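Extended Data, record DUF8157 domain-containing protein
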Amino acid sequence: MGKNKPFYVTENDKKRKETALSSKNKKQTEKKSTQLTSSKKTKLRIPSRLERLIEEYIEYKTKNPYQSPVTLNRIRQYILAQKAGYWNSNPKARYGKGYDVFAYLAYQAPGYLIQFKHILKFLDLKGVLPKDIILLDLGTGPGVVPLATIWYQKERKKGSLTIHAIERSIEFLEAFRFLVPEFIKGTSRIYTGDVQSCDITVQDCKIPDNITVLSCQNVLAELSHLSISEKAIMLMKYCSHVSEEGLIIIIEPAELRHSIELRKLQKELESRGLFVYAPCRMLRQGTCDYETCWSFEELPPMNPTRLMNELADEKDGYRFINQDIKFSFTIFTKRNIQKPLPSGFLNSATPLSELQDHLGELVNVTGVKMSRDIGNPNFSVFLICDGASITKTYLIIPRVLRNDDVKFAYRAGYGEILTIQNVRVRWNEKKNAFNLVSGVRTRLSATNI
C-alpha cells in the first residue's frame, strides 16, 4: 500500500479540511455561487416546509427577519462556540439560551433529520418498522427525531404515529412545541402524546407503555459523567416499557471516541438481554474487539439549507456549512429477529480470525461491510467484519480495477454481507490489520439476509 492510507474522521483531519477550505475560499469572490454549485451535485435535503418552520421560529423568538445581520452574526457566534465545545475532552453542550437553540437548528439539526429518516427507511425496507409507531424519544432537543419520523410517515402513507418525548431544556421544549405541531398540520393519524420536561438520567420521568420505537440520538455522548454500565442501567429502565416487537435505536457521532463508546455500550446492553439487529452481524462464534471498533455510516453530502447559505455569506463562511452526514448507530430488539444464515453459507470461506495462517495466499471470505469507502485516490478501502476476529480486516480495491463483480463492494449497504472470492492476504504493519487485496480474479457478491 506504500504511503496510501485510509481516510479517517479525526479532529486533525477536520482541522486540515477546514484549513484547505479556508485557502480555497480566499480565492473566491462569490461565496454563495460556490455553495449553490455544490448543492446541485447532491440530492439529500430537508423538506422546504421544515426549513421555513425553522426560519419562522427564529423570527418568532427574535421579532426580526431571520436574515437580519444582527441575528445571523449572533447565530454564527453560537455555532462556533458549540463546535469548540464538541472537541473538548469532555463534550458538554449547553442549550440554556434561545441562540443556543438557533445555532443547533441552523448547523446540526438538518443532518440529524436526514440520518434518522435514513434509519427509518432502512428498517421499513427490511420489513421490521412497526406499521403503527409509538415513539419515545429520549433527549429530544427541539424535536429532531419526531420531526424526522413525521417526515417519513408523511411519505410512508400508512399506519399511525404517536409521539412521546423527554427533554430537560426549557428552551429546546419551546422550540419542540412550535415546530412539531406545525409540521404535523395537514396530516392524519399523527398525534403528540406526553412531552415532558425531565432529565432522562433520573427516576421520576413518566414512561409510557407499549413503545414500539425507543430512540436516543446524539444524547449519550453528552452524559460523560456516566459510565458505560450506568448508561446501560438507565436505558434498560426505558427498554422495559418497549413492546416485544419494538425497536431501540441509538445514534451517536461518528467521531472516534463516541463511536467506540457506542460499541462498548452495545456489548453491555447485549449482556443485559437485548439483541443487536444492525449494523453488526455475528456471522461466526468468537470474540469481537469492541474496544477498538470504529465503525460508522456515511451518507452523500446534503444540500445546504437557506439559513446555512445566509450564515455562510461572509469571510470564512465555510465554517457554517454542514453538509457531511456521518454517524454511528446500533439497533436493538427484545427478541432475536435476524434471519438465520442459509445452511453451508460459510463453508467455503476462511474465518477472518485465521487470516494469519494464509498470509500471501488467495482466500475466500465472508464478512459484513462495516464502512463506506474510507480509502484514498488510488485505493478503495472497506472495513470487513465477521464478528469473531480481534484484528481489523480491510478489503482493498485498486481504483483501476473496474470489473462488474467488484462494483458490489460499492453498491452494498452499510451492514450488508459480502461474499468475496480470490483476495490476497497481506499484513498492514502500520495499522496492525489484515488487508484483503483485490485483483482481476476477485469476485464479489452482496447478500441481503
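Summary. The CA atoms of residues 59 and 65 lie 5 Å apart.
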